[in-house]
Design a protein that fits this description.
The chain is of the alpha+beta class and about 600 residues long. It has three domains: about 10-105, Nucleic acid-binding proteins (OB fold (Dihydrolipoamide Acetyltransferase, E2P)), CATH 2.40.50; about 140-265 and about 425-575, BirA Bifunctional Protein, domain 2, CATH 3.30.930.10; about 290-420, Gyrase A, domain 2 (2-Layer Sandwich), CATH 3.30.1360. About 30% of the residues lie in helices and about 25% in strands. Strands 6-9-10-22-21-20-17-11 form an eight-stranded mixed beta sheet, with helices on both faces. A five-stranded mixed barrel has the order 1-2-3-5-4. Strands 12-13-16-14-15 form a five-stranded antiparallel beta sheet, with helices on both faces. A hairpin with a 7-residue loop joins β7 and β8. It starts with 17 loop residues before the first strand and ends in a 9-residue tail after the last helix. Bound molecules: aspartic acid.
């Protein structure tokens, strides 16, 4: 029996037609002797009636259970008025079955499919192929398909060429640990899975491809955090003869096109921009969700010469007094809650947390009212703070203070505020080129070592204070999540060498690791720049999910396991022997 229609398309216009549907039994029940089955496929549901008057067929239907995969032939008929379901596409009709074929029966599934399932995520991942039968789970995957198609449509239309780059390759430099694949043919040697196609896309620019893209898998062996996957997908983009303005404008148009095509939500461009420096000063974060306001401000001027020694001494030491105001929270923040956030502030490295409340009736209270009544009065005169506002502030060295207040702001947003509406697209630009990795006690590239430094900074600080050098790099942030990063690239061998030097790679090491790129730069490398939006995170935002696992067909757990296939798994002695590998037992 070949299907003539899907389970999502029949309406009363098809009344009287003989049709064949294929799908899964979503549910089946007997009402007054009649078997009512709901048939499900990718497109929807259709009700099928097995009438006892057709006793042979009815008998067969009584053996059906949920998740049997079947074909049904029958006549479309209008449901009686009282049985019509106006909220469902096919709610006006049903199929009076004439024939039933069972393709395969089903055991009772270990997870619920036809109702919202409260099974553990582990069980759902183990039976992901069943989980994917659920309309809500399936829809996320189909949305992903629609989004990637829109991305391709846009980039193809702009003249980009989709080029595949190798998966078995050499270590690449995104700063994470590589996944290694042992070579059987050359024992003792390893391929690395690409952390991104970064070097290949730059080489494609040297080749003259000019506009490249790829929906590319990237592999990073990181200690997994809650919402990380060992493999993720990027919309990898590179362009020649451009600067940051061209890349940002292209990415904006791409986002607008793909978001609007997939979700219908209007996206207005250009997006807001903040430099890294400004983002840190205002929000204490390089990926702020700006929908909530609560911008940090410098409070020193109202406390200059204060007799309150805690603040006075800090200012003398060259520390800062900064805080932010949150509207609507004065009435919500009880003494207990203020204590709770003071504890949080201490965990974040601050000495404590001070507060000023402007209550609903305009009355002012403060943790330091006893010491600083005048200062507070002056402050409230200068800064317009509406009733029911809370100012939280503290003292400390610049970096610690801005970051800690940024963390506190984030915690308050997640713990106390209703989630804001809409999409907050924000560019953060001009990141530092380098940072100091405390753990490894050395300078590392903040983005990656192929990022073009700001050349003025580079001239000034390369030898004396490389941490002061800004990079020509940019991140796209949506609602506080980083969804893309990119940069203008170095295309000059001398600058590249110098950057390697700052990173502590001597010539020989640099040659060994990236010699092929340095070599390529000898043959007329064009200026180029690019970006790589993360597909999984974009999709999680679009479907409104907290977890990228919801938008990946076969995701891994937070510890990197695939619960369905059992990967990673042990391999046979023989495979190890072929690869000339030996597993050492963990030391006791
Ligand atoms: N390869 C970079 C990354 O994965 C993105 C880029 O610079 O284009 O973060």
């Amino acid at each position: 029996m070949k299907r003539t229609h899907t389970c999502g398309e029949l309406t009363d216009k098809n009344e009287g037609h003989r049709v064949t549907l294929c799908g899964w039994i979503d549910r089946i029940r007997n009402l007054g002797g009649i078997e009512f089955a709901r048939l499900r496929d990718r497109y929807g549901f259709t009700q099928v009636i097995f009438d006892p008057k057709n006793s042979k067929l009815h008998h067969k239907a009584r053996k059906l259970s949920p998740e049997f995969c079947v074909a049904v032939r029958g006549i479309v008929r209008k449901r009686p008025e009282e049985a019509q379901r106006k909220d469902q596409e096919t709610g006006g009709i049903e199929i009076l079955a004439e024939e039933l074929h069972v393709f395969s029966s089903s055991e009772t599934p270990p997870i619920y499919i036809n109702i919202e399932d409260r099974s553990s995520e582990d069980l759902r991942l183990k039976y992901r192929y069943l989980d994917l039968r659920k309309p809500s789970v399936r829809e996320a995957i189909i949305t992903r398909h629609r989004f990637t198609q829109a991305v391709r449509e846009f980039l193809n239309g702009e003249g980009f060429v989709d080029i595949e780059t190798p998966v078995l390759t050499k270590s690449t430099p995104e700063g994470a640990r590589d996944f290694l694949v042992p070579s059987r043919l050359r024992p003792g040697r390893f391929y690395a899975l690409p952390q991104s196609p970064q070097l290949f896309k730059q080489l494609l620019m040297v080749s003259g491809f000019d506009k490249y893209y790829q929906i590319a898998k990237c592999y990073r062996d990181e200690d997994l955090r809650a919402d990380r996957q060992p493999e993720h997908t990027q919309i990898d983009i590179e362009m020649s003869f451009v600067d940051e303005e061209d890349v940002l404008a292209l990415a904006e148009r791409l986002m607008k096109f793909a978001f609007e095509k997939t979700t219908g939500i209007e996206v207005s461009i250009p997006f807001k921009r903040l430099t890294y420096e400004k983002a840190m000063m205002l929000f204490g974060s390089d990926k702020p969700d700006t929908r909530y306001g609560m911008e940090q401000f410098n409070m020193a001027k109202w406390f200059e010469g204060t007799s309150f020694s805690a603040i006075g001494n800090a200012l003398e030491r060259g520390e800062l007094v900064r805080g932010f105001a949150a509207h609507g929270l004065a009435s919500v923040f009880s003494r207990k809650k203020l204590d709770h956030y003071t504890e949080r502030a201490k965990e974040l490295g601050l000495g404590g947390l001070m507060w000023i409340k402007v209550e609903k009736d305009g009355i002012t209270k403060s943790s330091i009212m006893k010491h600083c009544a005048e200062e507070i009065e002056l402050l409230l005169k200068d800064v317009s703070i509406p009733p029911d506002s809370l100012i939280l502030f503290s003292i400390g060295p610049r970096a610690t203070l801005t970051r800690a207040l940024g963390e506190l702001r984030k915690k308050i947003i997640t713990e106390e505020l209703r989630s804001a509406e809409g999409l907050d697209f924000l560019w953060v630009t001009d990141f530092p080129m380098f940072s100091f990795d405390q753990e490894r006690q050395r300078i590392v590239a903040e983005h990656h070592p192929f990022t073009m430094p700001n050349l003025d900074d580079f001239e000034k600080f390369a030898s004396s204070d490389p941490l002061k050098i800004r990079a020509r790099s940019y991140d796209l942030v949506i609602n506080g999540t980083e969804v893309a990063s990119g940069s203008v690239r170095i295309h000059r061998q001398d600058i590249q060498q110098k950057v390697f030097e700052i990173l502590g790679l001597d010539q020989e090491e640099a040659q060994g690791k990236f010699g092929f790129l340095l070599e390529a730069f000898k043959y007329g490398a064009p200026p180029h720049a690019g970006i790589a939006p993360g597909l999984d995170r974009l999709l999680a935002l679009i479907v409104g999910s907290d977890s990228i696992r919801d938008v990946i067909a076969f995701p891994k757990t937070a510890s990197g396991s695939d619960l369905m296939t059992g990967a990673p798994s042990e391999v046979s002695e023989e495979q190890l022997r072929e690869l000339r590998l030996r597993i050492e037992n963990e030391k006791p």
